Amino acid sequence: MDSFDEEHLLLRMEGLEKSFPGVRALRNGELSLRPGECHALMGENGAGKSTLIKILAGAQSADAGDVVCHIATDNYEGGRVAGRAIVEVLSGKGNIAIIDHPEVESGFMREMGFEEQVAKAPDIKIVAKLAGYGARDKSFAVAQDLLQAHPELNAIFAINDPSALGTLAAVEKAGQTSSVRIIGFDGQPEARQSVKDGKLYATVMQYPKLIGEKAIQTIGRYMAGDEVEKQILIPPKLYRQSDAANDPDLH
What we know:
- The chain is of the alpha/beta class.
- 40% of the residues lie in helices and 25% in strands.
- Strands 6-5-7-8-9-11 form a 6-stranded mixed β-sheet, sandwiched between helices.
């Protein structure tokens, strides 16, 4: 790369490595971007393209490689926020389940934070953990299995809002909306509306706009020659019905 190219780089990622259990998604990945360029990822769908996009979006971090700064939601803290909400809605006592997405780093971190927080409430028991893979339809099926296997269930933490909405459909079908409370994660419009309607107890809000703003600011600082942090984590917040009542984007 000549000095002109180096000077005008907007983005450079080199030597990216990312592995999941049983899958090596990226090996020595590279990406450079200059003003006016548009890149497309060609070829068959696969773990490599998906993982690179998620690293660029901040949803996952690389295991190794040259990444100037990773900016993302603090998923571990978000799990703790959800855990505190479960303790709150159950008044510190009850049986709960987790519908997770263990292959995805953000989901794994949310689950870890959630379990750490819930462990502080000795009268709350996690009776089951099943994978819904972040998908509405799969979470619906998994939630049906949970409700049949654990009639004593009081609450479910779903790892994202599609999982929470699939879980809600299963709970509604079983006629248990008053006895099984659900907490999601993302802050998607449909989930926020369900919180307002009293169908979901809460969702953990992410702030993608703030992440984007931080990314632009950090790029500007880096290009100006300033030293930037290797990681910037944006704290999420719990979104309850009282928040939904004042949400101008809902009806």
